[in-house]
Amino acid sequence: MQCQDARRLVPAYLDEESSEAQASLLRGHLMDCPACRGTVQEMKALRRWFEPSPAVPVPADFAARVARRAFAGDTGEPVLAPAAPSLAAHGGAVTLRAVPDFFLHLTAVAAAVLCALTIALGVREAPRGGTLRADQLPTVDALLEELDRLNATEDAEATTAEDPEDADVPADPGVAPPDRR
Amino acid sequence: MTAVLMHALPTDDADLVTRTLGGDQAAFQDLVERYQDRVFSLVRHYARTAVEVEDIVQDTFLKAYCKLATFHHDSSFYTWLCRIAINTALDFLKRHGRNPVQSVEDPEAAPATGRSTGVQAPDARLHREEVAEVTRAVLDELPEIFRTVLVLREFEDRSYQEMADTLGISIGTVESRLFRARARFRDKLVQLHPEFATPE
Predict the structure, then answer these.
(1) Could you give all domains of chain B from N- to C-terminal order, each with its CATH number?
(2) ipTM of the complex
(3) Which of A10, B24, B46, B193 is disulfide-compatible with B89, CB 3.0–4.6 A?
């Protein structure tokens, strides 16, 4: 047997999947071939990385719970992706899959409350009949006339009435006097 | 009394399947109890936490119940269940943004990885948990089809025939895929942990 043929048989041999005839041939070759024996040793070393780890504990009521859910119509398919871990796995009756539904309902209720509040505030602040009339509003012209009149009065007072105490106080060079306009 | 005795008798899978299809919840519960340990053991190689494992296993059994009428006893019930579990686990990874690495090559047609550095067995000073952690990290880096054959063979101790039945491929394909998966595992292990490479 050639080394190339022998090495092709090694994986199945180590997996105990080769026929007795193949295994016998390979064993014969390995007796005489240190290189192929090295290949076998290396593959055995690789397999040691796959040591079995401790069993995963299964919850005591797992089977009963799954059977109940199956017969209740749970298909195991995600309702809304991404599926989340189930709360039922920890004793609850609600699964996180139901959470998106819960949030949808919550959002709908919040939207309805917001609408109601908006309408209520609008009604409360709206002008009521008898308290405000458009024809009672002062016109812009009247407001401007009143403003002109006040300005004229102030200008007149500023030029005729002088405060004797203010006369000797130099103006602060860093601060501009207030604009009376 | 008779009912108790009948329930205590060993029942084969086919009978439990038939009774489940007839509406017997207890029969389905028996099926779950019979295989839950093995499915938990299988699924943990895909999930990260105990809660994730439990969710995937639960969904596996729920899907199995829904599809039970399509089980035609062409293979063993566990082989059929195993296929559902693997698909459920891979779907779970996709939904959670942990897409399993897809092979960019035809695993059967591509040439084997060139002979590269060998790998040592785990250092005796490493704890079992540390070995498992390294192995898991390497498996996470492998294309999904390679991870699955390694999990089935190395952890689940499935025969080539059972693997072929589970994956719907030929025994020859199992053999070649396994060969390439081991080569890729070795290369990735050395890449991630050069300290475990065989000294030249």
Answers:
(1) 12-95 (1.10.1740.10), 128-196 (1.10.10.10)
(2) 0.80
(3) B46
